[in-house]
Specification:
The structure is a homodimer. Chain A folds into 2 domains: about 55 residues, Arc Repressor Mutant, subunit A, CATH 1.10.10; about 140 residues, Tetracycline Repressor, domain 2 (Orthogonal Bundle), CATH 1.10.357. Chain A is about 75% helix and about 0% strand. Chain A is built from 9 helices and no strands. The longest helix of chain A is centred in the N-terminal third of the chain and has 21 residues. The structure holds a DNA duplex (30 and 30 nucleotides).
DNA sequence: ATCCATTTCTGAACATCGTTCTAAAATATT
DNA sequence: AATATTTTAGAACGATGTTCAGAAATGGAT
């Protein structure tokens, strides 16, 4: 007793999120417009709004996908001793984000909309921080590994933040990877200095 | 033989730039609209466009002011030995930027528009990097102080980048200042470790 | 068979955005 | 007075996110 669904809801959502990722990669957050999304996903803007509510919710779903991919990428890193593994993680993280500059901008640009982030959001970040903290704890048992992990992540974030918006060359001629490597190296040196003293 | 100027050009430009800073502080880059700027500066959008060309040029002028203020702030820092001076610089930088979150977003959000930045832009950044490098060179003469300065700046930038958009709490419960302090501490420890070895 | 209730979907409409450009305003010169 | 010249005002254009009235498409009731 109703007009039949023209789109399977889950298929539509997947198509919209996929189209959104494409638009983000093409032109960053400004390219993620309702009309372009409608065109690229095959639905009309009204249908998209019926499913997602607003464009920001589409972005959130892209971010969810991105976190999942990031987790898979990290899990696929080959096992290695703490130090080389930490270097590998930092460089893989830089590669991952800089292959997705538009998505990165979607994650970190714009007004903070919600007071509380979705729990999967925080869980993904905490999982990443835990993966950083693990080798640090192995290398320097007397240190607060969780805090050192936060600091190291933030340092690498600084590199990616500048590189993703094309402004790293304002600060350094070195590559993002080289600078991420240096950030890990500095943290490792500091850990050694702390255990020496 | 012409309609007389209704605004002194320099006064108008100053009023527009000042109004732009206010709008940025109120609501970040999205609040910097031509119509709001016209309202706040007392001119019409047409007049503003005649003077600045486009809104991005207004933002550039705000940034110029900001760099000038930042330089003055640093010059006003009390003299101190290298280590405490570096801590003081990092914390003052964090304070400066987080008191100007909207301006910070104007500096670091959005598409990179020009291939080449204005020379005063690069000069301001290089001056800041040199001020960071100076105490590092004093503490660790055998190190490449310029490179260490770049790395330290980028680490502190990571802190400010997250704090300015209200997302630092996703990564750490600590304050921006505490994290900036930790970044300096880590770099100083690494320098000591390097000179030990 | 016809009509209707119900749900899904479309796209026109609204306010706002950056930007452009026409024309009004205001003077100096002829 | 008329005109040329420059400055200013603000309407207009195409775009944006979002809403919403109605078209479309069915199953059930008559």
């Amino acid at each position: 007793m109703a007009r039949p669904r023209q789109y399977d809801p889950e298929t539509l959502r997947a198509a919209v999120v996929s189209a959104a990722r494409g638009l983000l990669e093409e032109g960053g957050p400004p390219a993620l417009t309702a009309r372009a999304l409608a065109q690229a996903s095959g639905a009309t803007s009204g249908t998209i709004y019926a499913s997602f509510g607003d464009l920001h919710s589409v972005l959130i779903e892209v971010n969810r996908d991105t976190f999942r991919e990031l987790g898979e990428m990290i899990d696929a890193l080959p096992d290695a001793p703490p130090e080389p593994w930490l270097y590998a993680l930092a460089e893989a993280y830089v590669d991952f984000m800089l292959e997705r500059k538009g998505v990165w901008r979607g994650l970190f640009e714009g007004d903070r909309v919600t007071d509380v982030f979705p729990q999967w959001y925080m869980a993904a970040i905490n999982a990443l921080l835990a993966k950083i903290a693990h080798p640090i704890a192995a290398l320097a048992p007397s240190e607060n590994a969780a805090e050192r992990a936060e600091e190291l992540f933030i340092s690498v974030h600084g590199v990616v933040a500048l590189a993703a918006i094309g402004r790293l060359d304002m600060v350094s001629p070195r590559s993002p990877k080289a600078l991420a490597h240096a950030a890990v190296n500095t943290m490792l040196s500091a850990l050694k200095e702390a255990s020496d003293a």
